[in-house]
Hints:
The complex is a heterodimer of chains A (163) and B (117). Chain A has 163 residues and is mostly helical. Chain A has helices at residues 2-5, 9-22, 28-45, 58-84, 104-116, 142-160, and strands at 93-98, 120-126, 131-136.
Amino acid sequence: xxRALLPMPxxxxxxxxxxxVITNAASLGLLVLGALLAIVIPLLSRDFWPDPPPLLHxxxxxxxxxxxxxxIVTANWRVARQIVGPLHRLSPAFVEVPLDxxxxxxxxxxxxxxxxxxxxxxxxxxxxxxxxxxHALDAPDPQALIGEIKERxxxxxxxxxxx
Amino acid sequence: xxxATEFIISALIVLGALFVLLGSVGLARLPDxxxxxxxxTKATTMGVGATLLASAIYxxxxxxxxxxxxxxxxxFFLFITAPVTAHLLAKAALHxxxxxxxxxxxxxxxxxxxxxx
Lengths: 163, 117
């Protein structure tokens, strides 16, 4: 019964929280409407969703979000200085990051995280060789960048999701 | 609203505007396509982030109706969609063999069999 009504509990929760946030949870009626949407939208869009691996450590996920926000701020300062400073000192590079994870959804998540951190944009996820192609604005040492992405983000994502 | 909150809110707005400006400066100054991709990521993350945070604080403090959280929604959607834009732009540029001074540019994606992304 529960399974038929809520085939994807995490998507339902996300829809409900988003609805509450958008409407500022102003009244009980709006929350009931949100609950209805949280049931109807996943049922209608069920076939389009990927099958993400189980979320093992939600709290570690929150800590990861905090680390990610902090990284965005520090990387922003660095890239801001690079943009204003002399451009000929930059050494832009394409870097291939070999991945240890083997899940398309988590690989996409990692690619998004890399893109949102200024200074790096993910270009391609090769699912045959499991390599993430990244373009970096300034990477004099590609190995260091590979290590950073794997250490900071990939390992954390692998721990949070079981994959 | 106290002076301290007003100060924090204005600082956040100026900071956000500064990063949107810096993103545009990057777009104009950087020499080739792949380097230019890095400008807008800053505008979306820090620029919009700081501005929306300022908005959330302002409307939480001003109205007595409680915290205002709906600023989180555009931030959330932007964080989902911005990497997709950058990804598609970069792939199109690789496909068209845009060149620049970046080292280690791979072969265009067209060499991969179609349907494998």
